[in-house]
Design a protein that fits this description.
about 700 residues; alpha/beta; Rossmann fold; 7-stranded mixed sheet; two-stranded antiparallel sheet; 11 strands; elongated; binds guanosine-5'-diphosphate; binds magnesium ion
Length: about 700
């Protein structure tokens, strides 16, 4: 019988927890959410021997057990609750040699909870460059713990760490500090009020409320025990921290020597340059431009290939299987739906490849620091920059990239406004409408058409910022967070960490958001390929009767158009006509608006079907569209209706895939629904005003 123990990796941000986690678990890991909130919960399994396995949890970074953020609260809730199924049999505190002293604060706190601990000192490979040497046996003695000196990068010390975990029964439970020395009389009171509880744990439960608010108190009802005011408790916490540092300083006096003369740091120049008031922004701008150029360039080929392959597969299915509803469902519903998911993979993979490299190298922290001042005015965070800019490729990876914004309010605002950014799926729609309604002339050497396109990008960005500022006022959230950015030193990214991030993000998208996307695709297919009454059923005979002189290709196109018109989708398009007529649209555009929901660029394809072009027909879609007349003889695509339509596409939430991702990232239907109606309302009003003014 093999036994499994719980191991928790705990430590300050950027000490290498995830790298150690990857070294221990390899690909034996999965990422889920903590219950009820969307903070990554990384778990994995490490096989220690034939009879012993470790379930390893990579906890969010935390500076101390005095929680000031959601992330820290997760760690504390776990450590205070013995009934939690993840409660650790062993706590591994990951520290790094360069910030050893600061890391030890958290270590001494966890020791005082009397949980079996192992201290990992990571980044051992940096010791010689930094002139650091450690007296490990002395430190083990003084800190009452086992120590593993590790380099996750060079994969050294990992085997020894595994041995230490295997022998978890031998780990010491002795605390580092005597908690009651913080305030002896108060702690005596505590002890007599709760004789069966561990003292330091009581102290944390009490002070936790002071810092963060409600926590799940489990079996400890300390609410009644109020002999100190909030400010007194805060003062005692500060005293605790000072006492801990006194202890740590004493230990390090003997346990650590740093030879400053050896600590030549070439990175200092790079640091100064990337944080510079002017060059900092310039460098960031160039890096961003290159990244997004690369995402466009590198993903277009695989995306075309995926597109073509799924189209072929769909054709092949229709040709091979006996024709019928099932084959149609498979070919046009399911295969097309899966294709609509897979097509996003290149963009997601490349974006996260670059993000992971920026994060791994330590550059991202500098950008966040640099941009934070600007973004904060709009209720956003320095970390919103990457999602907002990634939104120009596609809102889906962009929204997935908001995960590292710790402050929930800033993260939510970023998620809500990102879809205003002009994504690449809007481009085909913009291009065809612009070419139809915007005149050919030039202004200051720039063509009106190019200017319009640029304006649309600016409008999207402006709307995102404007709504962020508005939401910042409207949303009444308590979002307490200190702005602490870690400034890790520059490092060469570790391949393993980057690869695991990319794999994980892609998998999450395909299997989680993908489910919803597939379901809606099939729904849209059902609505488009079925219709009430006889006109849909008898489409082919009706069309054939009316068009005896046309060749078979043309008849087929007419049938497709006729069917679409009389399908449920067609009916929806027609029934919303009264609603969209004030914007300058007819029911054919209405159908396009509805099918756009599968993906915005589908608009063009839908119009192509409904105007039945292609094959031997000499007219292009553009010619067909410009020839389209209203009942009164005026053009359907006029300047007024064209601009109204452009603005509608700029602002409306017409992308079910984005909604699916928002649903996943906010863990509720509330926000995607608010987004759907809010954005569509804004789009409607603005398009209405535009059409009525220009007309
Ligand atoms: P976490 O925030 O604690 O999960 O830390 P990560 O595992 O993400 O690592 C933070 C940074 O430290 C990354 O840039 C890693 O490449 C780097 N890193 C991790 N382990 C080592 C190591 O042993 N040596 C060196 N030089 N760098 C490391
Ligand atoms: Mg990590």
């Amino acid at each position: 019988m093999s036994k499994q123990i719980n191991v928790a990796l705990i430590g300050n941000p950027n000490t290498g927890k995830t790298s150690v986690f990857n070294a221990l678990t390899g690909l034996n890991q999965k990422v889920a959410n903590y219950p009820g909130i969307t903070v990554d919960k990384k778990e994995g399994v490490c096989k220690l021997s034939h009879v012993l396995k470790a379930h390893i949890l990579d906890l969010p970074g935390t500076y101390s057990l005095n929680a000031s953020s959601l992330d820290e609260n997760i760690v504390i809730e776990l450590l205070l609750n013995k009934n939690n199924k993840d409660f650790p049999d062993v706590a591994i505190i990951v520290s790094d040699v360069e910030n050893f002293k600061r890391n030890l604060l958290l270590f001494t706190q966890i020791k005082d909870l009397e949980i079996p601990t192992i201290l990992v000192i990571n980044m051992a490979d940096r010791m010689s460059a930094k002139g650091i040497s450690l007296n490990i046996p002395y430190l083990e003695e003084a800190l009452k713990t086992k120590i593993a000196l590790v380099s996750a990068r060079k994969n050294t010390g990992i085997a020894y760490l595994k041995t230490l975990i295997s022998n978890y029964r031998e780990l010491s439970l002795e605390p580092c500090l005597n908690a009651s020395s913080i305030d002896p009389p108060y702690f005596d009171q505590l002890r007599s009020a709760f004789p069966n509880q561990q003292l330091y744990k009581l102290w944390l439960v009490i002070t936790q409320d002071v810092n963060f608010g409600k926590i799940n108190r489990q079996e400890m009802d300390v609410a009644v025990f109020k002999t100190k005011s909030k400010s007194d408790l805060k003062r005692l916490q500060q005293k605790e921290t000072i006492k801990r540092y006194q202890f740590i300083n004493n230990v390090l006096k003997q346990g650590q020597t740093i030879d400053i003369s050896k600590a030549k740091d070439f990175r200092a120049t790079l640091d100064r340059l990337t944080m510079h008031k002017f060059w900092g922004y310039a460098i960031f701008f160039v890096i961003l431009l290159s990244i997004f150029q690369a995402i466009y360039d590198w993903s277009s080929t695989p995306m075309d290939y995926i597109d073509a392959s799924f189209a072929q597969l769909s054709e092949w299915t229709k040709a091979t299987l006996p024709s019928g509803v099932f084959t149609d469902l498979l070919a046009d519903g399911i295969i097309a739906g899966v294709g609509g998911i897979v097509i996003f993979i290149p963009q997601i993979a490349f974006l996260f490849l670059f993000i992971a490299i920026l994060e791994e190298s330590g550059y991202m922290s500098r950008v966040v620091f640099l941009m934070d001042r600007v973004m904060r005015r709009f209720g956003l965070s320095g970390k919103s920059v990457i999602p907002l800019i990634s939104g120009t490729a596609c809102a889906i990876p962009a929204i997935m990239a908001t995960r590292n914004i710790e402050n929930w309010k800033e993260r939510l605002i970023t998620i809500l406004v990102t879809p205003f950014i002009t994504c690449s799926a809007r481009l085909p729609v913009y291009l065809i409408i612009i070419s139809l309604v915007i005149p050919q002339g030039r202004f200051l050497g720039l063509s009106y058409q190019a200017l319009t396109l640029m304006l649309l990008y600016l409008i999207g960005f402006g709307m995102a910022i404007l709504s962020a500022a508005t939401l910042n006022r409207l949303l009444k959230f308590r979002s307490k967070s200190f702005f602490v950015v870690e400034m890790p030193s520059f490092k060469v990214p570790m391949f393993k960490n980057v690869a695991i991030t990319v794999l994980e993000k892609t998998r999450t998208f395909v299997f989680e958001a993908g489910k919803i996307i597939l379901a809606i695709s099939v729904l849209i297919w059902v609505l488009a390929s079925n219709g009430p009454g006889d006109s849909f059923k008898n489409a082919s005979s009706i069309v054939q009767q009316e068009n005896v002189d046309l060749d078979s290709d043309q008849v087929d196109q007419k049938i497709a158009a006729y069917k679409l018109e009389h399908s449920y989708i067609g009916l929806i398009g027609k029934s919303i006509e009264p609603l969209i007529r004030p914007l300058g649209y007819d029911w054919k555009i209405g159908i396009g608006l509805v099918t756009s929901f599968a993906a915005r660029e589908v608009f063009v394809g839908t119009l192509a079907t409904i105007y039945s072009v292609g094959g031997n027909n000499p007219d292009t879609l553009k010619q067909k569209m410009s020839a389209e007349k209203r009942a009164d003889g005026s053009a359907v695509f006029s300047l007024a209706s064209g601009i109204s339509l452009l603005l509608f596409y700029a602002f409306a939430m017409q992308c079910m895939s984005t909604l699916a991702v928002v649903r996943r990232e906010t863990n509720s239907w509330k926000w995607p629904i608010i987004q759907l109606f809010g954005m569509t309302f804004i789009a409607y009003v603005i398009s209405l005003i535009a059409f009525q003014l220009i007309q």
